[in-house]
Amino acid sequence: QQEKEDLQVKLKLREHLSQTAGKSEATPAPSKNIDLEMKQLQCKLKKSNTETTKQSATIKSLKNQVQEKEERIRELQAKISQLERDLTMKRHLIEDLRSRLKANQENEKTSNETLESLERKVKALAEDKKASIDSLKQRFNVAMEEKSQYEQMYHKAKDELEKKDLKLTKLESKMIETECAMTELETAASQQLHGLAKQSAQALETLQKELMLTSDKVEEFKTFVKTLTRELHHRVQELRTQIKLAKKMGAMKACKKGLSQECLQLAASILNLSTTDLYKILQEGDDEETAKTKMEFEKDKEWLQHIQKLLEAQFPFASYLMDAVLEKLNEKKKLVEEYSSLMKHTV
Fold it and tell me: Which of 6-20, 60-74, 216-230 has the lowest mean pLDDT?
């Protein structure tokens, strides 16, 4: 600029001299030299003007580059804070999983205790059946003793009634009938005792098998429901991550259009990163996206707790469990539709 001002002063001076020389009508040779020098000065002035415009343009471009670098530094600092928040969230998640593991272990202990109590009850029932069988045997022995007593009485009566033939024949027929009835009673009693013993043993075995099968089915159902909920939760999280990545890919393409390749390469070389990593860092989420992610995490946590409460609740709970699972399936369906629309726009 100083050189430009000097040239302008010289040009004005030369014009003044040329005007004074034209008025005095002196020698023509110096005026021609003055015109040539004026033309040279005008050329220098034009060159200086063009050079100043170039330098001002370069200064503006350098200022823009400095502003872009400052913006990138701020974005990188925001990315570092977001990564720290993600790390704390992952630590909380690990602590939650540990607490759930402890709760599952406690549930397993309670189930083992209930199984032991049931086994004790089964043993008590077997002992009761054994006691009843022993009491029936004792009754049978008493009946046999009574039979022997009746036989003795029969012999005595036979000795006494030998004197009377008519009474003797009648008594003998009666005795034969009683003996037949006694033998029938004995056989029927023994058969009933054996049948009762077999039925009690079979009933105990059937009850024990049904009890074990029922407990196994209940545990298998709980395992199925827990696995299903975990799989739904995992797939919904994967869809959310894919949607975020699709949004970031679209934003990254828009960012590529707005930034020059030379500026990106310069920033990548300064930060010792590749251009793709720099795009990813530039396009990663803000505070609103972080808050949304945290809210979704809390909702998933409440949903899993609701499923666990339903499994631990009293019967019936199938309709409530079905409503909870359908809610998560509908959410997954919406996420799939959103992801497909994003992929169409991205392509």
Answer: 6-20
Calculate helix-pair angle for 275-283, 28-161, nearest 10 degrees.
Answer: 70
Name the DSSP letter for residue 316. Answer: P
Q: Which range has highest mean pLDDT (66-70, 236-240, 249-253, 263-267)?
A: 66-70
Question: What's 164's DSSP letter?
Answer: -
pLDDT in tens, 52-111: 888 888 888 888 888 888 888 889 988 898 998 888 899 899 998 989 899 888 888 888
The SS3 call for residue 162 is coil
- Rounded to the nearest 5°, which phi and psi values hold at 25? 50, 50
pTM, 2 dp: 0.36
Contacts for 279-283: CB closer than 8 Å, 24+ residues apart: 279/252, 279/255, 280/248, 280/252, 281/75, 281/76, 281/79, 282/72, 282/75, 282/252, 282/255, 283/248, 283/251, 283/252, 283/255
pLDDT tops 70 at residue 30: no
User: Cα–Cα distance between 123 and 88 in angstroms, integer?
Assistant: 53
Q: Report, as an integer, the average pLDDT of 126-147.
A: 88
Q: In angstroms, what CA-CA distances link 311 with 183, 236, 318?
A: 60, 22, 9
Query: What is the distance between the alpha carbons of residues 55 and 198, in angstroms, rounded to a whole number?
Result: 111
Contacts 24+ apart (CB under 8 A), 210-214: 211/118
